[in-house]
Amino acid sequence: MSKPTELGSLKLGSYILLPVTDTPSGEPCKIVEYDTSKPGKHGAAKARIVGVGIFDNQKRPHVGPVSMQVHVPLINKRSGQVISITDNTIQIMDSETFETIDVSTINGEIKDKIENGQNIEYWIVMDRTKIMRIRS
User: Fold this and answer.
1) Pairwise CA distance, residues 2 & 25, whole Å
2) Which pLDDT tens digit goes with each residue over 39-63?
3) Is 7 helix (H, G, I), strand (E, B) or coil?
């Protein structure tokens, strides 16, 4: 799920779906570089952004007018507890709904630190789930 917004209203640290299309598709990315140019004699102001994918860590550039409509992903930040760990999946129980979720995408920095019984924060973005950090 996403919502439309203007490219000029985004800032460093915001999230965007790249590559930009008319339909809300693409990879959810965090904006790591943002630069705007002044309007010129023959055109509107341009925004140059570079986004890094939340799930694949790939850099994706985009240039467009600041009035351009882009899609911003809706991020559902949730907390849960690790129930079990297998080779490539981690099973999490949500702290509010008590439903169990199998997650295979983990933030690379915390991959080796996750243990059974730990409280974690996970994000649901565009129907995909990723473990983001360990809560203390």
Assistant:
1) 9
2) 888 888 999 999 999 998 999 999 9
3) helix
